[in-house]
Amino acid sequence: MLKALIFDVDGTLADTEEVHRAAFNAAFRDAGFTWNWSVGLYADLLEVSGGKERIRHYWQLVDPSAAAAPGANATIDALHARKTRHYDRLAGGGRLALRPGILRLIKEAWAARLPMAIATTTTPANLDALLRTALGSDWRALFSAVCDAGTTAVKKPAPDVYQAALAALSLPAEHCLAFEDSANGLRAARAAGIPTLVTPTAYTRGQCFEGALLCLDDLGEVDLAALHRWHAATQLEMSGGELT
């Protein structure tokens, strides 16, 4: 039986990656770096989960000696803080809307008293910047658990943040349904044992989603009844039963 929904955020609740890319580039300019992440380059960098980790990975590619020098970690922290401020300004300025079907699905789940949780590797500040605009200042009241970059030290594709969400919900993985947009996110949710529905973005559409329950363009035509049917089908499959 489906007892909870667990949502990733970036790319899943909202198509945020272009705003993240703009915020990174603005931070680089502020700090006097000549780096500029193009769309194609950023798509590759999204294979690395976490903003600080992404900066470190890129720096190691373009200037490994500087990336290994004393003070590099402090520079990365400062860059990421600048990036977060830019993202907060852009996301809070109404540039981001929830993806099709998300708001309706959240409202349906809330009305049905179906618990919802968030499992993301984004920072609490980025999370609040997006959701306070999209869902209101009291958005946290909608979710039984909010697990973010401050919850676990290890990022996706490790399952840690999903395991934290399951613990907070006090539910086994098989009674939940995860929503993701990327291969790393899918790997994290599946490693935690959670059936996962994937809605790729332009940045992730070419990735491998083997193991997903379903892969859809968006949730625009999906309602809570459909989620219950799809989840029930996974339970039948796991038990060796058949749909009639």
Largest sheet: 6 strands, parallel
Please list the strands of the largest sheet in the order they lie side by side.
3-2-1-4-5-6
Structural class from helices and strands?
alpha/beta
Report helical residue fraction.
Answer: 40-55%
Tertiary shape: globular
Low-confidence blocks of residues:
none
- The number of helical segments is 10
Total count of strands: 6
Order of helices and strands: EHHHHHHEHEHEHEEH
Percentage of residues in DSSP E strands: 5-15%
Distance between the termini: 17 Å
Gyration radius (Cα, Å) is 18 Å
Look at the structure and give the mean pLDDT. Answer: 94
Q: Can you describe what's shown?
A:
It is globular, with a radius of gyration of 18 Å. Helix 5 (72-95) packs parallel to helix 7 (124-135). It is 48% helix and 9% strand. The chain has helices at 17-30, 39-45, 51-62, 64-67, 72-95, 102-111, 124-135, 160-169, 183-191, 224-239; strands spanning 4-7, 116-119, 145-147, 176-180, 196-198, 214-215. It has a six-stranded parallel β-sheet with strand order 3-2-1-4-5-6. It has 244 residues and is of the alpha/beta class. Helix 7 links the parallel strand 2 and strand 3 (145-147).
Summary of the model, kept short:
48% of the residues lie in helices and 9% in strands. With 244 residues, the chain is α/β, with parallel strands linked by helices.
Any descriptors?
244 residues, alpha/beta, 10 helices, 6 strands, 48% helix, globular
Secondary structure: elements and pairs:
Layout (H helix, E strand, L loop, with lengths): L3 E4 L9 H14 L8 H7 L5 H12 L1 H4 L4 H24 L6 H10 L4 E4 L4 H12 L9 E3 L12 H10 L6 E5 L2 H9 L4 E3 L15 E2 L8 H16 L5
